[in-house]
């Protein structure tokens, strides 16, 4: 959601903070600010609406600023995006400056109490109550004041706070919002995202919920809110900074689309046992028996990950004959679902930090279900909260519109379905082997699709002024239609809807006229292919413009389409992994042609760590 960074050491804090904020800008970008401690023990704060570039060009760092500071890039939840509501937020006496990620649910009650005590509020944010509360509790002990304030809060937070009375210390804390410490030589860092300080250190420590860190230049002390010391081992970050840079591509999204041959290979690496016709999933080793005995699997997720879950449902039911339900995490957590100890709930999340998904698995855990995760970010909240799981190994995904995470999630769900199919004795060794062999060919087939990018760009140019789009698919490709529509609306702001192709006649067909482009996924390997051809004809009869994602060699389809994008054939179970790629590219090129900010689309955030 928002990005947070703090630095304490001998270097010039302002440039480290601005660099770190730039790296996290994908998390939020409607306003930003930094606070620096000055040699006369005052806090200098500068904030601006807009992006980090606006902050950088408007700031004049005082000569007296020293090596301690905090920064924030914001995605507004309470209070409009403006320089006043940007963080850091200060208390009335300007003795504390605080940055916050999350939502304080009882802020209005707390604010009313503080106003009664004479505090004056200058922002519309929920964050201001935290810093005013700290000031209210402060009697000379900074740590104790922060601890007392945090105990009054309901909701989610990741905070970092500094005080003019304590020029040698930064305090950070978390509850439901990521916060990671970076250890340097005579300097230390804290951030909501390791990318913010990876240039300086790989030696890190993830704070858990209800923990706070007291950070000085020489060391870090981690304590619980009950004031007991925490002694967990530090971790080492293994990925490279170049993986989170653009590597010559104009946008992260395009880079990530092009990484898919490699990321699919990485998701498969070491997991296929071709000779035995099965797979090895190390993260499930401890829970295998419970998983196999499950009455039902519930897949829960949000956004693109929810679309991957839908493919997962089709895969697991088809290959393992186990009942699967797919739930929006935001609904699941509140709708009082029936969950038993014989259920297995699997959260799917690229970031591993999505607040609704995290809350959903906490509910499932309470009900006694086995809880697993399919995540990208190692060490993320969901990865830590679950009893086991499978990492997708797609590497950092920075573009707000998820691409490579989707294909890797579907790869991992395919592996899971094969594993379960073999264990449940529904999938023969030979069938499993042929699916696995085909999976190994997918990276090359993705490379082939990417070679056709120019044609997709050109098709985009014919339709980039359309106001609406329909995406239709059936079977395994129905979730791909949803994902194609989501990609387009996220980054080009064109209204797009995905539907199961046969459902078109129950409503969306009324929308079709000569100005409506309809994207069909019509794959020869799909048993419903002839039915999709009928659906295409129904659109043509109403003068809709038809763009088809078709299988190489399907010459007939040309007669039925205005535009055809050919992609290699594959097994129908694996079809989504290929058919989604031209849709990612189509959305990308249309957004670029419309001059949209592809990596930072308006109103969206990469990781939604609030409700
Ligand atoms: C946000 C992102 C989406 C993502 C969704 C779920 O809405 O913009 O791209 O699919 O969150 O995120 P997760 O990290 O849980 O997969």
Provide the spatial order of strands within the biggest beta sheet: 3-2-4-1-10-9-11-14
Main sheet makeup: 8 strands, antiparallel
Q: Which percent bin holds the helix content?
A: 25-40%
**How many helices?**
18
Number of strand elements: 26
Structural class: alpha/beta
- Approximate shape: globular
List the ligand species: 6-O-phosphono-alpha-D-glucopyranose
User: Radius of gyration over alpha carbons?
Assistant: 25 Å
Estimate the mean pLDDT confidence. Answer: 93
Give the terminus-to-terminus CA distance: 11 Å
Unreliable stretches:
none
DSSP strand content? 15-25%
Task: Write up what this structure looks like.
By secondary structure, the protein is of the alpha/beta class. The strands form 5 sheets. An 8-stranded antiparallel β-sheet has the order 3-2-4-1-10-9-11-14, with helices on one face. Strands 5-6-7-8-12-13 form a 6-stranded antiparallel β-sheet. A 5-stranded parallel β-sheet has the order 18-17-19-20-21, sandwiched between helices. Helix 4 (127-137) crosses helix 5. The longest helix is centred in the last third of the chain and has 23 residues, at 429-451. The protein starts with a strand and ends in an 18-residue tail after the last helix. 6-O-phosphono-alpha-D-glucopyranose (G6P) is lined by residues 302-305, 349-351, 354, 357, 400-402, 604, 606-608.
């Amino acid at each position: 959601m928002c990005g947070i960074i703090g630095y304490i050491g001998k270097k010039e804090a302002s440039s480290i903070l601005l660099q770190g904020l730039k790296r996290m800008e994908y998390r939020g970008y409607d306003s930003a600010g930094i606070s620096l401690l000055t040699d006369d023990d005052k806090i200098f704060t500068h904030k601006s609406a807009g992006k980090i570039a606006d902050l950088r060009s408007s700031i004049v760092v005082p000569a007296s600023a020293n090596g301690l500071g905090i920064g924030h890039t914001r995605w507004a939840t309470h209070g409009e995006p403006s320089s006043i509501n940007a963080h850091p937020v200060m208390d009335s006496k300007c003795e504390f400056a605080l940055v916050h990620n999350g939502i304080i649910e009882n802020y209005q009650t707390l604010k009313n109490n503080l106003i009664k005590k004479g505090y004056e509020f200058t922002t519309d944010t929920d964050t201001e109550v935290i810093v005013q509360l700290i000031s209210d509790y402060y009697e000379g002990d900074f740590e104790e004041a922060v601890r007392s304030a945090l105990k009054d809060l309901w909701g989610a937070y990741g905070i970092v706070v500094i005080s003019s009375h304590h020029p040698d210390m930064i305090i950070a804390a978390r509850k439901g919002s990521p916060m990671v410490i970076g250890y340097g030589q005579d300097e230390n860092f804290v951030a909501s995202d390791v990318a913010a300080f990876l240039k300086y250190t790989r030696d890190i420590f993830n704070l858990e919920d209800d923990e706070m860190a007291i950070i000085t230049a020489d060391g870090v002390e981690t304590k619980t809110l009950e004031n007991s010391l925490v002694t967990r081992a530090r971790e080492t970050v293994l990925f490279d900074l170049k993986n989170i840079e653009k590597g010559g591509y104009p946008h992260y999204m395009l880079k990530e689309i092009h990484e898919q041959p490699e990321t699919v290979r990485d998701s498969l690496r070491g997991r296929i046992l071709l000779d035995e016709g099965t797979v090895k999933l190390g993260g499930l080793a401890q829970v295998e028996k419970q998983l196999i005995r499950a009455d039902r699997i519930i897949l829960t997720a949000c956004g693109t990950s929810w679309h991957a879950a839908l493919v997962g449902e089709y895969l697991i039911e088809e290959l393992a004959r186990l009942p699967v339900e797919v739930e929006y995490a935001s609904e699941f957590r509140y709708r009082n679902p029936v969950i038993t100890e014989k259920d297995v709930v699997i959260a799917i999340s690229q970031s591993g930090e999505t607040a609704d998904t995290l809350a959903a698995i906490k509910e499932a855990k309470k009900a006694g279900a086995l809880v697993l995760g399919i995540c990208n970010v190692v060490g993320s909240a969901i990865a830590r909260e679950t009893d086991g799981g499978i990492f997708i190994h797609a590497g950092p995904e920075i573009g707000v519109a998820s691409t490579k995470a989707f294909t890797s999630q579907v790869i991992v769900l395919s592996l899971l379905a094969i594993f379960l199919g073999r264990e449940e004795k529904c999938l023969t060794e030979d069938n499993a082997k042929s699916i696995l062999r085909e999976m190994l060919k997918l990276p090359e087939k993705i490379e082939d699709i990417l070679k056709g990018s120019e044609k997709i760009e050109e098709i985009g140019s014919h339709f980039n002024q359309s106001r609406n789009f329909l995406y239709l698919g059936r079977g395994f490709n129905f979730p791909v239609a949803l994902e194609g529509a989501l990609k387009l609306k996220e980054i080009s702001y064109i209204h797009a809807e995905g539907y199961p192709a046969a459902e078109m006649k129950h409503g969306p067909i009324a929308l079709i006229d000569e100005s409506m482009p309809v994207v069909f996924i019509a794959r020869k390997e799909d048993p419903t292919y002839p039915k999709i051809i009928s659906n295409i004809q129904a659109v043509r009869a109403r003068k809709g413009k038809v763009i088809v994602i078709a299988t190489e060699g399907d010459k007939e389809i040309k007669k039925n389409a205005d535009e055809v994008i050919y992609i290699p054939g594959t097994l129908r179970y694996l079809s989504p992994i290929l058919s989604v790629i031209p849709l990612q590219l189509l959305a990308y090129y249309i957004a670029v042609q419309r001059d949209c900010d592809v990596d930072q689309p308006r109103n969206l955030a990469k990781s939604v760590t609030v409700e």
